[in-house]
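Memo to structure team: turn this sequence into structure tokens by end of day. - J.P.
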Amino acid sequence: MVALVIGNGAYPDGDDLANPLNDATDLGAKLNGYGFEVIVALDCTAKEMEKQLKAFRKLLESHEVGLFFFAGHGMQIEGSNYLLALDTDMDSETDAKHSSLSLDKVVDVMAKSQASTKIIILDACRNNPWEQAWHRGPGTRGLASVYAPKGTIIGFATSPGEVASDGAGRNGTYTEALLQHIEAPDCSIETMFKRVRNTVAAATKGKQTSWEHTSLSGEFYFNMSLGNLIEEYDGTALADSLFVIDPAKKSHQVIQGLKTYDWYRQNPAVGLLDAAAVNKMAKNSLFVVGRNLYQAACGSSNSAAYFAENFMTATQGFNAEKRKAILDGMLFEIFFNSKGELRTSIKGRYFDTTFDLQRFSQLQDSFDFIAESLTAAGGDFYAVPGKGHEVAVTVSTKKGKEGTVVEAIYIGGADVLRSKADAWDFVDGAQLHSEIEPDTLNERLIKELVVPARSLKITYTPGAAAKEETLLIPRGWTVRKGQIHDLISV
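Reply from structure team:
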């Protein structure tokens, strides 16, 4: 899925809009979280809008879903719609047409693409400040109706001929409702737009009615719940807080024991997992067993830790599908919480140990499973865990008065070293640093980059820095990938 999201607000001559930049930024972040590759373009000239549309057209050649969003001034001229750039020439309607982005062109680019689902969303029907200068009648207000080619849905902030509210808060009225309802799980796009319409009508006391035109032939969902995306296990296993314990079942006795956080109950529970018993257990139960085994290992249960560290030995005699269900659960627990949602940071104590099992070819199906689960959930990673892709990291250092300082950490030519807060810590103009051993730094990189040691290639420059007893690194550092890392702003 790919999206081009444009927000224009800094229009000249007092015609600026307060919300479009926030609208574009917030929707871009939301779409990125749902797995879209997102281009966010802010306060664009006409030339910049054309440039981004060309980049979008190129990306559409290799994506199944395309989405175009625009927030800013828009108008209809002679029955066609135009999206205004910051430098649109408003001396006349003719000048405006030829210095704006034509909505017909956007529709045409998407219609001729290989994408099977095409989505256009326009929060662009703000009041036109040039109507009076052009001596326009009320029939030319807002945007005109647009034909939606096959496989396309077009959402407007208002019905044809109406104008939209710019909103009193961070977002425009329409985009605010869109951001609210796009989060609804397992809600089709048509149903989502209906909910948006209700919210907009309520917020404007009926003065603004959003509108759509669609020729979609299939269903599209922005936010599919993991239970609907992953068919291999039940929703109560994926969101194991919903899993109901039946004490009569041996597998459930194991789960119940592991959930106690009591080593004296956890360790005997692991002992119940002999081959004869496991081979009779249901895969959903074993998946939950795997989740809780990993949890117990991270909580220092000796038996669970042994199981994680000696997985092949501990599962000897298990049928292949039973072993897979347990390992699937262990891998899932690393990345997903008890509600089946992606964790903000991984449960990493046995991350590298568990992923080192990828060296066994007979276990590859489990790593395919977690890679597909993370992709389906819209996980944002330097390399999707489970795919086995290598990530090369270069730690750049320099000699300072107090020692060797880490000044940058490069991946793919970009410095990913940043502060967890808004800015680095300084005292009297001097940046604060903490000491860290190279081996400890490497371990931290494994967890923060979410790349197992076997797939992470770390080099230091100069090379001698890797042999230092300690390095200095800016206090409060992280290399964890942010939610909107892939957004491109111009």
